[in-house]
Amino acid sequence: MAGFDDLASERSKAQFDVEEMKVIWAGSRHTLEVSDRISRLVANDPVFRKDTRTMLSRKDLFKNTLRKAAHAWKRIIELRLSEEEAAELRFYVDEPAFMDLHWGMFIPTIKGQGTEEQQQKWLPLAYKMKIIGCYAQTELGHGSNVQGLETTATFDPQTDEFIIHSPTLTSSKWWPGGLGKVSTHAVVYGRLIIDSKDYGVNGFIVQLRSLDDHLPLPGITIGDIGMKFGSGAYNTMDNGVLRFDHVRIPRDQMLMRVSQVTREGKLVQSNVPWQLVYGTMVYVRQKIVSDASCALSRAVCIATRYSAVRRQFGLQSNGIETQVIDYKTQQSRLFPLLASAYAFRFVGEWLKWLYMDVNQRLQASDFSTLPEAHACTAGLKSLTTSATADGIEECRKLCGGHGYLCSSGLPELFAVYIPACTYEGDNIVLLLQVARFLIKTVSQLGSGKEPVGTTVYMGRVEQLMQCHCAVQKAEDWLKPSVILEAFEARSMRMSVASAQNLAKFDNQEEGFLELSADLVQAAVAHCQLIVVSKFIEKLQQDIPGKGVKGQLEALCNIYALFILHKHLGDFLSTGCITPKQASLANAQLRSLYSQVRPNAIALVDAFNYTDHYLSSVLGRYDGNVYPKLYEEAWKDPLNDSVVPDGYQEYIQPILKQQLRNARL
Ligand SMILES: CCCCCCCCCC/C=C\CCCCC/C=C/C(=O)SCCNC(=O)CCNC(=O)[C@H](O)C(C)(C)COP(=O)(O)OP(=O)(O)OC[C@H]1O[C@@H](n2cnc3c(N)ncnc32)[C@H](O)[C@@H]1OP(=O)(O)O
Ligand SMILES: Cc1cc2nc3c(=O)[nH]c(=O)nc-3n(C[C@H](O)[C@H](O)[C@H](O)COP(=O)(O)OP(=O)(O)OC[C@H]3O[C@@H](n4cnc5c(N)ncnc54)[C@H](O)[C@@H]3O)c2cc1C
């Protein structure tokens, strides 16, 4: 049987220790053990089946999600799972649901923006799921522009309460996940008004529904905002609409870590920067970067396995056609995505560390690294989600016609993933934040304030503005120092050029708007440098296992040279490399593809995904694609009857020419 033999033979060709690569991918032996155990637990539980998801009506789909969420919670309690194991279980259940927002945003917001007392009051309730919360920031009229939110929270000194109100239609909360049908509580972002004075946006804990009968509390109008892109996909989530009509909450339900309102109605600022009100977004953006490597690797795993099973043209002497993975065009589209999945994994790991480091500093009242953390999370969220969304679609095309079938798993993965380019900050809006940070850094060069963190390279501005790439032969592109210098010089020169162009404007804000398309490109260049440099740093660690390091080096070089090839215009126009060096990079890339080719299947096996998680007939571990595709087709409800419903009303009259006769 084609698929079985092909994948078995591919696996036997691997030149590295797959089990050790699994550890590298997972992050540690411990994480691998947990994710392996929990993914199998989910895969073997019939309640977590997901093969009918794309065929259910919205109501049935949603109820099924509720059933799975309740079952997941039951299993978490029964098995006494740790926080880490519970998070893995929710991940492998693989269905966007209110739980994501409760655990992923509501709880972190209370932890990050609540005082000690507020945490003590609310967190135990939330941890035990006695209340279910969501994150209600975006409104019908404003999402990106958080300072433009219109919901008001007016302090009433008579009663020691805030009055939460939606003064306009556009102030309706719109989009929050989990809000539409499930959440009992929300962190609501609104304008703090004291004595008619507007103190800007803050977070408030508001109860939305009765804990007895789930009905909305007085003054609250609430519902789901309707069907979203694709079948199944994100429609398991109840993204909601919410309006307040003078709803009163006690004063102590304003999240008061950043600023406090006293009983007398005085606003007291604590020593933490006001930007901490935006802290949950930084936390989630960091998570989204790790999630990007999961979504991309999932699509790549499907496309790689299928490319080894699928054969087209080129009869060989043994009468067998060529595996499509052997076509150079297939490799040049697929292997950069494989390399990107690994690159995003490692930059995600680093970003997690950076976030923890910033958090520890914040506890010790050191706020110095917050701007860098904001820029890195915003930029990398944008870079990785855009590349992943495009990458999933490319994987669909790599699978030819069968990739368009829901049973390939790719259409739903694409539909569920693409909003990541929008939620937690539109990707362009976020890159503009990075650009502001870069322009600020460039403007401070020479002022005595040394660039820090990921902008340290900018301290070598003179060298980077003048350096010439030393590549003379294709293999020179394999040297990490050569790659790093080219990426640093490109980023430096693009930022400096943007800053110089900006300086020509009398009004900096106007200049920023006028040059924003170029500024976005400079931000992308900086973020790509971060990804490349973190991959290179990873390779400097001790990497055990036969051949593992060699494979990762090849992937790192593929990622870097692919980006160089894709953005050749930047590298050439800034004079970082010559056209001859560009063509040597291309030759090296081709040679790297040949190096990865025999290891491709093993490199995707190292993700350690179960067939349940992949939910793809094309990506099956055993490669048994054709019989399963055939089998899946017959499961479609349209095939329940041989003659379709509607035959007599709509097909028969055409065939019998009754319709034409009626018109004549
Ligand atoms: C097949 C089935 C598969 C199923 C898979 C299921 C898997 C599920 C896995 C899901 C994974 C993740 C789940 C995600 C769920 C997502 C739910 C979505 C939630 C949301 O979207 S919540 C809403 C998010 N909203 C936004 O992000 C809004 C974006 N806008 C902003 O962030 C800001 O308004 C702004 C930054 C764009 C601008 O703000 P503004 O106040 O105008 O500020 P500026 O004037 O520009 O800046 C002022 C200074 O503040 C600094 N700053 C800005 N932001 C921050 C920050 N966050 N932290 C620190 N500092 C910040 C800025 O740099 C300026 O500083 P300066 O004065 O220059 O020094
Ligand atoms: C599936 C999904 C789940 C979500 N979940 C939540 C949730 O749980 N809680 C919550 O509060 N919100 C949630 N959101 C809302 C989400 O955070 C916002 O949609 C997002 O921040 C983008 O804001 P917007 O919709 O206002 O886009 P807009 O800002 O209106 O963007 C429209 C266009 O304008 C451009 N644009 C906007 N501003 C600028 C600028 N300054 N310069 C240049 N171009 C600009 C953008 O690039 C984009 O092309 C969710 C959204 C989705 C799609």
Layout of helices and strands:
Elements: H1 2-12, H2 18-26, H3 29-43, H4 58-78, H5 83-93, H6 98-113, H7 116-127, E1 133-136, E2 152-156, E3 161-165, E4 173-174, E5 185-194, E6 197-207, E7 220-224, E8 240-244, E9 247-250, E10 259-261, E11 267-269, H8 279-309, H9 328-363, H10 370-398, H11 410-417, H12 427-443, H13 461-466, H14 480-503, H15 508-514, H16 516-539, H17 548-566, H18 568-573, H19 579-596, H20 600-605, H21 611-614, H22 625-634, H23 647-655, H24 658-663
Helix pairs in contact: 2-3, 3-5, 4-5, 6-7, 6-8, 8-9, 8-10, 9-10, 9-16, 9-17, 10-11, 10-12, 10-16, 12-14, 12-16, 14-16, 16-17, 17-19
The structure holds ligand LAWDYWNQ and flavin-adenine dinucleotide.
Structure explained in plain terms:
The chain has helices spanning 2-12, 18-26, 29-43, 58-78, 83-93, 98-113, 116-127, 279-309, 328-363, 370-398, 410-417, 427-443, 461-466, 480-503, 508-514, 516-539, 548-566, 568-573, 579-596, 600-605, 611-614, 625-634, 647-655, 658-663, and strands at residues 133-136, 152-156, 161-165, 173-174, 185-194, 197-207, 220-224, 240-244, 247-250, 259-261, 267-269. With 664 residues, it is α+β, with helices and mostly antiparallel strands. The strands form 3 sheets. Strands 1, 2, 3, 5, 6 and 9 form a 6-stranded mixed sheet that branches. Strands 4-8-7 form a 3-stranded antiparallel sheet, with no helix packed on it. A two-stranded antiparallel sheet has the order 10-11. The longest helix is centred in the middle third of the chain and has 36 residues, at 328-363. The radius of gyration is 27 Å and the shape is globular. The model has no long low-confidence stretch (mean pLDDT 96). The protein binds ligand LAWDYWNQ and flavin-adenine dinucleotide. Residues 480-656 form the Acyl-CoA oxidase C-terminal domain.
